[in-house]
Amino acid sequence: MKNKLFYSSLVGLTLGTIGFSTLKFNTQQVLAKTRFAKVISYKKLSNSPYNVNGGYIYTNARLNKKSHDASHYLNKTFYALESAKVKKNNGKIAIYYYLKSSNGKIKGWIWSGNVSKKVIIPSAPEFPTSSQNSNNQNVDNYAQQKSDINNMLAIVRSMDSEDQDYVLSYFEGITPKNAYSDISDGISEMSNDITNYDTKNEVILDAQAIQKTYQLFNNRFDSTANNDLSALSSRLNDAFSENDADSISSAASNLADELSTAVFNLG
């Protein structure tokens, strides 16, 4: 009888120990899964205007709570007040910006790869009134140049998030007067970026942007340039059908190089 009681007590104690250990282990697992990012350092920024390209906005730099889906605010202007160097829970280091909308209602931390500096296009200048026809032509040219700048900015922001920042740098300080020279440089950078890709998705996004750029300027050149560009665009479409990253990269780069020269000659 005493042996039975001793055995029962021993079994109960063993099960209790196992249960406690399992509870402790599960608790540690939950804590590990909910580990937040660690902030390494902060840095003040110059309150420069930015646009967001997607991703999420977080309430703090530890990234433990999402407050906004940035894709809902692609056309809104934000101001960068601070940056944080963050070690994420996967061990990787990343830079996050603290952004605030102009009305202060939308604010928080977003990965630097999901933002781009806002390009300010100056307002229309006063043209000399030498003749009504000349003035009307100047106004028409200005409207076309400004439209091309805005359309190019939208196209560039559809590129891979890391590549678009390089191309957008060519649009800083751009004016309608030097529009096609700067756009040409930007297209040339698109060609460089697509030949130095890391992933197939990056190639596809950048190649699609180059094809959209061709469509924006299609049939605005002389007949020789139009025919050459049309042939290169068709080759890029064929490469898309083949679904081979190297073929897409090569075809898109060739189209961008030819297009860069043609656009420069519009100026």
Explain what the structure shows.
The protein is built from 7 helices and 7 strands. The chain has helices spanning 2-33, 132-156, 161-168, 179-194, 200-217, 223-242, 245-264; strands spanning 38-52, 56-58, 66-69, 78-87, 93-101, 107-111, 115-117. Strand 4 (78-87) and strand 5 (93-101) form a beta hairpin. It is globular.
Give the SSE string: HEEEEEEEHHHHHH
Strand order of the largest sheet: 6-5-4-1-7
Approximate shape: globular
Q: Which percent range describes the beta-strand content?
A: 15-25%
How is the topology of this model organized?
Layout: H1 2-33, E1 38-52, E2 56-58, E3 66-69, E4 78-87, E5 93-101, E6 107-111, E7 115-117, H2 132-156, H3 161-168, H4 179-194, H5 200-217, H6 223-242, H7 245-264
Antiparallel strand pairs: 1-4, 1-7, 2-3, 4-5, 5-6
TL;DR?
The protein has 267 residues and is an alpha+beta fold.
